[in-house]
Specification:
globular, Hypothetical protein af1432
């Protein structure tokens, strides 16, 4: 009698697109494991990511708005969930592997630093070998989680995580879906947060772009998802129409100029960024010179022959915003005291 997992694998073979990455055809893990009776390999990967420490820390990491006074701005965790939702909708519509898509989406930003891309830029400058959050995300699932054992994820999930960046080339269609879904999510929810913060107005967005893809966050996401589905249906690729691809590229460039890299005082998303970057840099040099002060799981990596600079980056990139700030205070800000009677 077939196990439930084997029945699910058969169901995939009979119902998914001929272009889907089937669980039964996975290239597997670096370390052999006994198969689960209930879950496919990609279901297990998704569950391992959700239950790992790095995933939980995403709720206290900056997306774009650094330490906002408000509960409704996105964090790195809510961004991840939005990417997952968009990606799963596309995968389901195209009859591709939804479990693989979800696993990649949930793991794609595990390696992000505290303070968002501001923190990433500091580590990228300080590390001789450079620092990219997509590479760090793979390092976390391979070498850091579970006290250095890693999550032992499948090759397909790790490939999708590594290649979710704009320049990436995922091997699976499911990975390609996440790559585009990430862009759809952050472009639109960063606009939404900027409008809520009164940094931008909807009418500020370039009209030649909004005329193509929509005049609200909701309408744009709906339009972009449908454009991908209709242009990718029954094809061995994940595509946008040329007009929409051009519009998205222009909107992304506009956001870099007017939101992400705009240091105007009105842009409250950027006003505290320099302070945050100073914290990351000070902590980096402190732990580089006092490596024994880091948790034992990181010190062990040094014993295993890992690069010292990389290990310090591992520790700092894993910090939440609040943890980094509190560590800085603990190390460098004096506290009051009084004589006990």
């Amino acid at each position: 009698m077939l196990t439930i997992r084997e029945q699910l694998e058969e169901l995939e073979k009979n119902t998914l697109s001929k272009y889907a990455c089937l669980s039964a055809n996975s290239e597997g893990r670096d370390r052999k494991e006994k198969e689960c009776d209930l879950r496919t390999v990609f279901q297990r990967d998704r569950d391992r990511i959700i239950h790992c420490k790095a995933f939980r820390r995403l709720k206290h990491k900056t997306q774009v708005f650094l330490i906002p006074e408000g509960d409704h701005y996105r964090t790195r965790l809510t961004h991840t969930l939005e990417v997952s939702q968009i990606a799963r909708t596309i995968a389901k519509s195209l009859r591709l592997n939804e479990d693989l898509t979800e696993a990649i989406a949930l793991g794609h930003d595990l390696g992000h630093t505290p303070f968002g891309h501001a923190g990433e830029s500091v580590l990228n400058r300080l590390l001789p070998q450079k620092f990219e959050h997509c590479v760090q995300s793979v390092r976390i699932v391979e070498k850091i989680e579970r006290n250095g054992q890693g999550l032992n994820l499948t090759k397909e999930v790790r490939d999708g995580i590594l290649n979710h960046r704009t320049s990436g080339k995922p091997k699976t269609l499911e990975g390609k879906i996440v790559r585009l879904s990430d862009k759809i999510a952050y472009i639109n929810h960063d606009i939404d947060d900027a409008i809520s913060a009164k940094i931008l107005k909807e009418s500020d967005l370039p009209k030649d772009v909004t005329d193509v893809i929509g005049n609200s966050v909701k309408s744009r996401i709906d339009f972009l998802v449908k454009d991908i589905v209709y242009n990718s249906y029954d094809k061995n690729d994940i595509l946008m129409s040329k007009t929409v691809e051009k519009a998205i590229s222009e909107l992304r460039a506009w956001l870099f100029e007017n939101l992400y890299n705009n240091n105007n005082k009105k842009n409250i998303a950027k006003t505290e960024e320099k302070k945050a970057q100073n914290i990351v840099e000070v902590l980096f040099y402190h732990y580089k010179n006092n490596i024994d002060e880091m948790p034992i799981e990181y010190v062990r990596l040094l014993d295993n022959g890992e690069d010292k600079f990389q290990i310090v980056a591992d520790y700092i990139s894993g910090m939440t915003d609040d943890f980094a700030i509190n560590k800085f205070k603990e190390l460098y800000i004096p506290v009051g005291w009084k004589v006990r009677k």
